[in-house]
Amino acid sequence: MRISELAAASGVPLPTVKFYLREGLLPPGDAIAVNQARYEESHLRRLRLIRALTEVGGLPLKSVNRVLEAIDDEHLPLHELLGVAHYALEPSAPADAGPMRDVVDALLDDLGWNINPEAPARRTLGRALATLSDLGRAVSPAVLRRYAEAADSLATAEVAAVPAEASRGEAVESVVVGTVLYEAVLDALRRLAQEHHSSQRFGHGAARTR
Amino acid sequence: MRISELAAASGVPLPTVKFYLREGLLPPGDAIAVNQARYEESHLRRLRLIRALTEVGGLPLKSVNRVLEAIDDEHLPLHELLGVAHYALEPSAPADAGPMRDVVDALLDDLGWNINPEAPARRTLGRALATLSDLGRAVSPAVLRRYAEAADSLATAEVAAVPAEASRGEAVESVVVGTVLYEAVLDALRRLAQEHHSSQRFGHGAARTR
User: Fold this and answer.
1) pLDDT one-digit tens code per residue, B126-135
2) What is the per-residue pLDDT across A146-171, written as a single tens digit (0 to 9) for each?
3) What predicted TM-score, i.e. pTM, was given to this entire model?
């Protein structure tokens, strides 16, 4: 298809498609004439992935680029790719272990989860727990455990959903998309559930709680 | 305490504290001399809340400001405050209903959740579902239901955890902090659980999946 058709089919504006081509996020098409190239289904797929990561996942282009490079790196084992996706998703990860690392390590140990010592989510979790503690709202081990169990049950299903016979490209996309987009699904559902339960509890007699 | 002590106790750099004062995110202290004011425990508490929302929640200052205004508005019923916090958390909410609104409405109806028709998370959820569908990964009703149940179980506990005898200020802070910070806890745990299950499935024989 032509570049204008590619733009229309992906829902990405034409100038943005051209920008992605210049920046190398989208590989060039096959030149069929001066200033004209033909694009394939794979280009459309890649554009949709970029759009999903930026628009729904909220990833900056630099992070999207890192994820795409990892997808394209045939030598990177599938499992490590998940790490790259996670690194791209976390806010800049400083070198230190971060606050409450001991609590995080003890929890993961207790859960028996096999996690890279450098996994950025360890730091993110410790930081959230430390902040809650600073606000006088330390998370109890029982509550933390409840969140871990909910996360475990979702992740079990997510990883199992990667088709066994998937090609590397498909498996990789499935993992990245799952990490980013299902997080948006889960967060939105949690807010909706909060609203429901909050309306049940506070909706009719809100004045009494003042 | 003096402004320098306030900065030290909150972990917020002094120039940032001064900036928050100028911008009205932090109320002024009691003037005790020319160019000197005394700050209370309430200032420290507010600074910690701002820091939690910006650093861990990733909220832009404009959104933090909207949340703080809602907290300070004594006439706003508690339940509506949750709505303000949710609005502040969602990316800009356009006026249209967004994609896959029918699927979202049917799900919420089916779950029996009492949700404002204008709740921004409806749109966020529809957008995530539409994007997954565009990527050829439409979410099945059973999977969506599983996420909804996980969200429901967490939100039930979160809303129940707001102390019955809490003052309005405490209840409000509890709700806002719960929305923003427990989301960070949950997302981090989900990534860790994904890493664990991915390592179980792909860790040792990643090459085979290529």
Assistant:
1) 999 998 998 8
2) 999 999 999 988 888 877 777 777 77
3) 0.82
CB atoms within 10 A of CB A74: 8
Cα–Cα distances in angstroms (integers) from residue B151 to residues A185, B10, B58, B126, B183, in the given order: 10, 32, 21, 16, 11
> B199, B208, B186: which is closest to A159 by C-alpha?
B199
SS3 state at A32 = strand
Q: Please give the angle made by the CA atoms of A57, A75 and A17, to the nearest 5 degrees.
A: 40
Residues 6+ positions from A29 with CB-CB distance below 8 Å: A3, A37, A38, A39, A40, A43
| Helix or strand holding residue B137 (H, E) | none
Residue entry with tokens 């939690």: B52
Residue in chain A closest to B89 (alpha carbons) equals A191
Task: Please state the ipTM of this predicted complex.
Answer: 0.82
Cβ contact (<8 Å) for A209 and B171? yes
Helices (H), chain A: 3-10, 14-23, 41-51, 61-72, 78-89, 101-111, 120-134, 141-160, 168-202
- Length of chain B equals 210
In terms of Cβ atoms closer than 10 Å to its own Cβ (0-12, 13-18, 19+), residue A27 is: middle
Three-class SS state of B204: coil
- Whether B178 and chain A come into contact, CB under 8 Å, resolves to yes
Please compute the mean of the pLDDT values over residues A26-42 and round it to a whole number. Answer: 91
- A60-76: pLDDT as tens digits: 888 899 888 888 888 88
Amino acid present at A122: R
Q: Which residue type occupies B86? A: H
Give contacts of B 50-109 with A, CB under 8 A.
51-52, 55-56, 58, 74, 77-80, 82-83, 86, 89, 91, 108
**Over chain B, what is the mean pLDDT?**
85
CA distance A163 to A167: 9
Task: Please check the confidence at residue A45 and state whether its pLDDT lies above 80.
Answer: yes
* The two structure tokens encoding residue A174: 């499935």
Å between A34 CA and nearest CA of chain B = 32
Q: Which residues pair with B36 in a beta bridge?
A: B33
Determine the pLDDT at residue B119. 86
Pure H helices in chain B: 3-10, 14-23, 41-51, 61-72, 78-89, 101-111, 120-134, 141-160, 168-202
